[in-house]
Design a protein that fits this description.
It comes from Columba livia (Rock dove). The protein is α+β, with helices and mostly antiparallel strands and 898 residues long. 36% of the residues lie in helices and 16% in strands. The chain is built from 28 helices and 28 strands.
Length: 898
Amino acid sequence: MLSEQWATASAHCSKTRLVKELEDHHIVQIACGDQHAMALSRGGELFTWGQNAHGQLGVSSQNALIPKPQLVERLKGIPLAQIAAGGAHNVAVSLSGAVYSWGKNDFGQLGLGHTRDRGCPSYIKALEHWKTVFVSCGADHTAVLSKEGLVCTFGAGGSGQLGHNSTRNELVPRLVAELWGARVSQIACGRQHTLVYVPSLDTVFSFGSDEEGQLGDKRKPNQLIPLPIDSPVNTGKSHQENNTSQKVIEITAGGNQSIVLCKKNNNSCLNGIATLQDENVDAWISSSSTRDWESVKKNIGLIFSSEACINGSFLAKRDKHFKTSTEVSGVDMAEVQHFYEKVSKVPKVFGEVLKGILKLQSSLSSSPISPENFRVYLILPFLLQGEFNTSCALRRVAQTITKLQPHSLRTLECLWSNLETSFFKQLVILYQRVSQMILSGFLENVRRSRQSLYHLDPRQIVTLQMLQILYQVNSRTGTRVKENTFYVPEVKKIIYMCHFVDIRGTALWMLSRYPCIFDIQGKILVHFTECNTQASHSSGIPLIVAAKKLWWFPVKRQCLLQDIWTHLNKASTQQFKNLLQVSFEGEPGADDGGLGRELFSVAARTLCQPDTGPFHHLPSGLLWFPSQARSSQHTFFQIGTLCGMALYNGYTVPFPFPRALYKKLLGLEPDLGDLEELLPAAGRSLQRILDEECDQVLESLDMDFTIMEEGGSMVPVELKENGANIPVTKDNRKEFVDLYVNYVLNKSIQKPFEDFMQGFLRGCPAKQWKIFLPVELQIVIQGHTEFDWNLLEKNVKYVHYKQLDQTIGNFWAVFHKLPEEKKKMFLAFLSGSDRIPACELEHFGFYIIDPQAENPDECYLVANTCRRILFLPRYSNKRILKKKLLCTIEHSENFGLR
């Protein structure tokens, strides 16, 4: 029945009329309030119209009257199970029990904890995991029924309609305690009264206003607690005893009326939205070649073109979907996979599924309000796998996901992180394959000169952005999927294409935003390509012919550090963009890499000396910044500059820094694992504190929120205000550990690290080094410390020698018997450093040349460190060769090559 206001607004409202705006929708539920109406379609869309003075239409409109049905956009994608209308408020419940309310709220009838009206649907957080299956609305109150048969009420309570033995209003849902254990199966709200039915007792209970006899008995005007009504239905017998046990009871409450309907069978007119059921798939497949196919096509299209219908399908069995939250999707991913495997074998059926999905994609919800909204983003990729023509659809899904608001994206990331590893890996592989396909197409167009290296459409590589997001989720959850699963091989081909051009603005520059698709060698190539670009005279000249700007860097061995600091103090910002050319005064030879390696190696080892170096040496063998250091004379700024220069010029600098330093350089927070690497004993103790389950053990430790500052007086430092008076307990131990880690790795070394960081950025003016992971950056700067000496032998090339010559055989026999430390000393003598650069691990080698000396036994080994050449005379026997080799190594050690 339409309202008087509606009649005034429309001349035809006094007569029954078809709501033409909904004639194309299959309406499965309707609900009417005092002056407004709602309709739910089988496709999962909710429409409202009528009075809107309190926002009861949920369409965020300020208009007081909206005569035509409007889609409630806020609930788009929510698989609604039931809708209910009150006087001027509405409540809806989803298939997984999430409850939403909107409209008038002056008595708290929305259950949101306040009395402000809401013009759009809001999620009732207090009913999360309540397993709501039914809702009912009175004029200004609401009742909610759970799957377990419990009843909650909230809103106006002035007539006792909430059943809490009071007339107080309730702003949040409150359990009706008098019905505890009764297992209610039905609820119904009148204007100011409530009915409930308990099938085990075959009894209808009522509470609230009885001014017009709506409670079925002569009672006081307001009944404050549930009492059975006096009716023929209430026989006092159980269902098993009752002669009418086959009857079905339905209860209905009007404004001031109550109706109890006894039926012979349950033919409720309550219908729900279309969702995929197990029997559907077999029916679709069997009907694909029959006259029923047109009806099947409509059903498939209805479900898979509706976000709400998809979100309501594939629900976890045994009521697990009622636990849906920001961490639990409620989706049975195995069922999604099973469905795909089944229908993908029937192209006719699968084609209709794809048509529905493609129709849906342009209207996917961009502002989800419930965890149930996110199911579609989990389901769709698994329905679009394995098909060449689905890559475009996968890209569209990725575009919608990447446009989500940050808080919504965080929710989806949380759901991804809780996927089973097999499904998460499959999701990664899906987007990795599509990314490969897109970049292969780009490369083909470049090869055919149809596309420039500078024209990669950002919309095409949205799948790479998806991969990067998934990679970050993977990292936070303990790297469940191997990093190489994210690599896209095609990027290496693009790297080589861009290797001789200014990469700024190229496809490579864009791809570097997604580091997960590069392996470490690819990242190194990107970094050094940028460095070469900066060192070239003109960005308009191809790098292969452009002259590099050089920074001539002469030093004396006797005062190496002083000369380095002098150069750095005098250098302009521009000079750090030039490539370093080192020379040692009084020594012949141009720098072809070896002299630079030697410079950084010797400088680092000098600065690492325990007695004279500026760093704090720890029992773990690692270096760390001194606590509370003031960094006098820019010491750490200069060392940071030196490390940055090494990275920019492609040299290793063997400071034994912990992983925490590289995390901090990349803007990542160190954790307890990093502290344990630096201070193993302290780290293990803190972990034991976190693992301890006995309160008494923690109390016996007698710990508070302080840390003993190492040095002189061992003065305790408070980790938080008044920390000395705060004992460490089971409740606050996580905070204590976090503060401890933060103090050691951040707060106590803030000044020296800030100086180091500023110097590092000065020494390395490139930007792409930030694509490295901490472990990768550590390897690139420090070099590899573990060697495969057999691989080194395999990579050696010979001049005037053959591999089977006796001298060569003797040399390797002697070399392989040397202690590991001596082998590293030989490596330093040969190349200027005892570290192997990250980019050369697999192909690091050198030349062995016969100098063709007249008296080889009187000659020593000589090396050209710039070109990694070993001049090896033809010694007469192995003993002489071993003596000469050891003597050479000792000589190089004394000469300062280590």
